[in-house]
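Researcher: Please predict.
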Amino acid sequence: MRTGTIGNWTWRVVAIVATLLALILALRVLQSERQPDLKPWHTWAPNEADAGEIDELDWPGWLAREDALMKDLRAHLRASLDASDRVAANRYFDGSPLYSARFAHDWNRSYELLPAGEPRGAVVLLHGLSDSPYSLRHVAQAYVSRGYAAIGLRLPGHGTVPAGLTRAHWQDWRAATRLAMREARRVAGPDKPLQLVGYSNGGALALQYTLDSVSGPGLEVPARVVLVSPMIGLTRFARYAGIAGWPALLPRFSKSAWLDIVPEFNPFKYNSFPVNAARQSYELTQVIDAALRDAVASGAIDKLPPVLAFQSVVDSTVAGEAVVGTLFARVPRNGSELVLFDVNRASPFDLLLSPTAQRGLEQMLPAGAQRYRITVIGNAPGDTVVSENSRLPGSTATTTRRLDLPYPASFFSLSHVALPFPTSDSLYGTEPDDEDYGVHLGAQAPRAERGTLINGADTLVRASCNPFFGYMRQRIEAGL
């Protein structure tokens, strides 16, 4: 009798869970079907090398493979675009001003930048998810100006079409990182320092490579790691992102494989975003968390090179507190530093700042003395000029240095995507230079009725450049 009762309750729980899951999937189907139709760049992608193939390639082989897939991409799209896709706002239309093949330099490609003389060292730069090597070109140029060779890697699935991210795996990105570091050693020569820079998801890859290098033989250990908006932790939604794509197993609901389907008007970044991309990033963060725990347990964490990280206190893409709690709470006393960019506390609209934004800095700053330096770039209420407020390792005292930098009144805060771009960046800057990439996205200050701009253009109101990039560059160069 008792066993039967337990069995009945078990079946009831199973039925309730199944019903809830079916309801969630039905809502997901309804949501995805409201999205625009899929375009050729959502349904086809060139054939990328996987992790096993990448491990067998050298840098010339990687570039040759990249040449082939770019030619394949352009030929396929040239033949598959219909009349409605042949518009100026489509980066994949060869008559568009956004078409990257027409630029003097196509920053969707892997690249090497060399100094005038013999390199003093080399740096590998890893861009973010859905991004391209364009995103770290200004940081690369900072290294080159100091005599370093810069290796800008295009990670698999990027720089081509958004559909490339429906097939990509984090293991492919890890293999490509190893390849780029092998090339960095070849270019720099023996015994010269190698550094590793990672932005967003590239920051996760940079950290993961570094943990692999200090935990076992066979990999070059970087002399320093620079992280920009690192994707060490993600919001909780990313954990369940894979479920959102389940309906796409049925061809009728193929749009469910996408979290966003929007026009592609950015020449160096995807606007559309597939479920798989979120899932791969989440898996990578879990691998990093486990690797950090293992490194602490084995003592390998003591071999970790200095880490210099830059993070906006307000970040809607990554869990900024994970940079503190997951990474910096475990670094040894090796000269590492965390630089935080606070909100604008002298903004004329500071009363409109959300409570979360107002308390963001307070919630991220750890209590007590730490093994690393903590620096906050921010201003006081009523003061438009920012200061550098630092706590040295082992100290709770704050040293303040006033910087000759205003916090622009038009910025409430920085953002996840803003940090690696100066205000002069042609694509994302608020004061763009005269480089021609078809559009100056960061210089726009759109004012219109809702629905006036094309779907996805609401991203134009997000901070897209860093008014303190010059300070960030100085801090990076100081470590060279």
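Model: The first strand starts at residue 111 and ends at 113.
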